[in-house]
Amino acid sequence: MTGGTVTSESSFSPALEAEFVGVGNDYIHADADGKHLRLDAHSVLKTHDGALIYVNYTGVVALSPAEKAVFAGTAGEGSTPWGNAFTHFTFETGDERYKELEHSVFVGQGRFNVQNDKSVVVEYRVGQLIHG
Prior knowledge:
8 strands
């Protein structure tokens, strides 16, 4: 991971507007059957008000033809469909303004966006699980 942003919905508290800083890592390995990828990503966010937040997500990607084309480098410009990549996010911070993030469960679904120059941007929609 070399860049990107995180922006919460307006009703979410604590409001989060941050960018990835430094160089994170994201480990991807394929299951032996070739049908799924396993994700393990680590990075640091810097919020608009200066807080640092460590973020880790793990997940699984079901390899449909669209995802296979992205990883093979043969996909054309556009986005893969939602519904094949799911993740679990955790956060750690020493900043009390964002400490509540550590005590919550977050899950997400992702997709891959192939740009005109063939670079790939990963997009996630992340939600917090709450008691219903």
